[in-house]
Amino acid sequence: MATFLSNVMPATTTTTTTTTATTAPSAEPTDPALAQAPQYRASTLSLPDLAHRDNPLLQFAAWFAHAQAHHVPEPETATFSTAHLPSGRVSARMVYLKQTIAAGPRPGLVLYSNWDSSTKAADLRSNPRAALTFWWRPVERQVRVEGVVERLSAAESQAYFDTRIRGSRLGAWASRQSEVLRPHERDDADDGRAELEKRVREVEARFALDDDDQQQGQIPVPPFWGGVRLVPDLVEFWQGRPSRLHDRFRYTRLREGDGDGDEDGQGEGEEGAGEGGGEGDGVQRKRMWKIERLSP
After folding, report:
1. Under a CB-based contact definition with an 8 Å cutoff, are residues 12 and 102 in contact?
2. What is the pLDDT, as a whole number, of residue 130?
3. Among all residues, which ones are annotated catalytic?
4. pLDDT tens sequence across 149-179
5. Residue 16 burial by CB count (10 A; 0-12/13-18/19+): exposed, middle or buried?
6. CB 250, CB 17: distance < 8 Å
7. b/e burial code for range 22-51 (CB count within 10 A of at least 16 → b)
8. Gap between the terminal Cα atoms of the chain
9. What is d(CA 116, CA 223) in angstroms, rounded to the nearest whole number?
């Protein structure tokens, strides 16, 4: 059975990130009236610090573990951005990352929500591309992930759904996410909340507890609710630096036929190396990702 934790860890191995972190705190402006931006000094980032050059999701998991170790509040919180076509209208919301799948046939970042009535659901029906952005202020780091979104199976969604508290499972059934809640026309004090609470009572009756306050059978995952996997084709790691001269490295997935998809050691110097540099093991591997430093 799958384990679902807010503390996201890599699916294959536990690693620690290589950094050149210092103990010096960031220099915050002493007078807010000066309105100067903070100077980021917690760490630096160079190519050798990327311990997983052939797998950005393993590198993400290492950075996530680093954020946890430095007590970043809710590091699994991210901005999930989608865009509707053909209008091009962009929308964004905060979500919780629930899994990082770093290995296997379908690696990606997993989150759960309503995929029927919500704005993001409508966006994804017209355009499967989306982005996640993580901001970890205490360690002055940001991660951007772009890719294609695909639904998890009903069985995968049920496995996670079963781990939620009863109230959250009932709420998933009761809420038609993003639909307008109409105030009761005979109750001037009602702003629409009464309609939601009525739906919750109906769902509670449908999935009633027995005399011992035990759930009678499994609460099934709603057909309109479940998990999605963002399969990345671009991942950027950002480390804050003073004077806005930040360190940025972008992983871009190589497609079949790309000129940079040579075997390890035959591409662009260090940036063509596999995990840990891929040196000295005598094994040539097809490069899956191109790494480039970006101007801040």
Report:
1. yes
2. 98
3. 244
4. 999 999 999 999 999 999 999 999 999 988 8
5. exposed
6. no
7. eeeeeeeeeeeeeeeeeebebbbbebebbb
8. 43
9. 9
Give the CA distances from residue 5 to residues 10, 74, 92, in Å, rounded to whole numbers and listed in that order: 12, 12, 23
Residue-level pLDDT at 181: 85
Burial class for 67, CB neighbours closer than 10 Å (0-12, 13-18, 19+):
buried
C-alpha distances in angstroms, 163 versus 3, 218, 229? 9, 11, 18
Q: Quick check: 27 pLDDT over 90? A: no
* CA distance linking residue 58 with residue 101, whole number of Å: 9
Cα–Cα distance between 240 and 246 in angstroms, integer? 5
Q: How many residues does the chain have?
A: 296
In contact, 236 and 134? CB cutoff 8 Å: no
**Distance of alpha carbon 222 from alpha carbon 199, whole angstroms:** 14
Q: What pTM value is reported for the model? A: 0.78
